[in-house]
Amino acid sequence: MSKLYKDPIGTAEKAAKAIAKITGKEKHDVALVMGSGWISAADALGTPTHEFAVTELPGFPAPTVAGHGGKLRSYRLSNGSNALVFLGRTHFYEGLGMEPVAHAVRTAVKAGCKNIVLTNACGGINTDYKVGQPVLIKDHISLTAASPLIGADFVDLTDLYSKRLRQIVKDEDPSLAEGVYVHWRGPSYETPAEIRMMRGLGADLVGMSTVPEAIAAHALGAQILAISLVTNAAAGVTGEKLNHAEVIAAGKAAADRMGNLLAKVLPKL
Ligand code: 8IG
Asked: Could you read off the pLDDT of 117-157 as tens digits, one per residue?
């Protein structure tokens, strides 16, 4: 474990202070984590006041995945509040442990953010879902069973994905579906048999992110909104093979809709 990660909360506090210094903003109010396929959606939020590499802050490893940017933007929203937007994230499958995975949201909470919006691209298990469709996460199943928390931190996850925040988004777009997201370690995708198992467990969506960040941010008192973009049918659903290029293309195609939705919703959270 790197020295920075022995004290994850202390490192997040240092990173939050560095954000305040770089942006000249004492605090931020809301943070977004943009997953693969979502990065161009951030452009709908207007012109950021600041943009810099996350590696300028303590505790952030360099990004490793195509389509994951590793940049942090600060925006001033139409209601006067300040938003932090992370373009890209660190995943559990990168093998660095949970601390760097949880670091962005911990930093955001320490920077003042009370609401955290997590976005991702994922596979659709529910056969009603179409590629390019956004789905609000209403609950999760952790098939990694790995928590970002260490020690006797018995956090309640009954309302992890805030009903209040989901309602604000549904008021904006009543056509949005809600689903249960499975966290799969990856980086290999599932087998068709694993997808059938997940469907039997009550899952609608499967991906390799979001869950540890939601838990870590909620443990620090933040409210969570999580939105998945279905970028492929999960393994075995259509008989087609899965590939990362398809994911990026589906994300690009849906970026305008997602960006406009986020731009409308953020000032209302
Ligand atoms: I995008 O089908 C994307 N991410 N585990 N399975 C898992 N993660 C994903 C998938 C998928 N599609």
From this structure: 999 999 999 999 999 899 999 999 999 999 999 988 899 99
- Position 94, amino acid: E
Residues in the chain: 269
Quote the ligand 1 centre to 41 CA distance (angstroms). 19
| pLDDT recorded at residue 38 | 85
CA 16 to CA 21: how far, in whole Å?
9
CA distance 9 to 15: 10
Q: Which among 228, 6, 209, 14 is positioned nearest to 106, based on CA atoms?
A: 14
Cα separations in angstroms, 207 against 92, 105, 128, 145, 241 = 11, 18, 17, 14, 16
Residue closest by Cα to atom 8 of ligand 1? 207
Res. 58 pLDDT band, cuts 50 70 90: very high
Q: Which two tokens stand for residue 151?
A: 């020690």
Residue 22 CB burial class (10 angstroms; 0-12, 13-18, ≥19): middle
Report the half-sphere exposure of 19 (CA within 13 A, side-chain side): 35
Q: For residue 235, give the ligand 1 atom closest to its CA.
A: 2
Q: Is 31 a catalytic residue?
A: no
Q: What is the mean pLDDT of the chain?
A: 92
Is the confidence at residue 196, as pLDDT, over 80? Answer: yes
The answer to whether 35 and 121 are in contact (CB under 8 A) is yes
B/e letters for 210-224, b = 16+ CB within 10 Å, e = fewer, are bbbbbbbbbbbebbb
Helix (H, G, I), strand (E, B) or coil at 182: strand
> What 3-state class would DSSP assign to 252?
helix
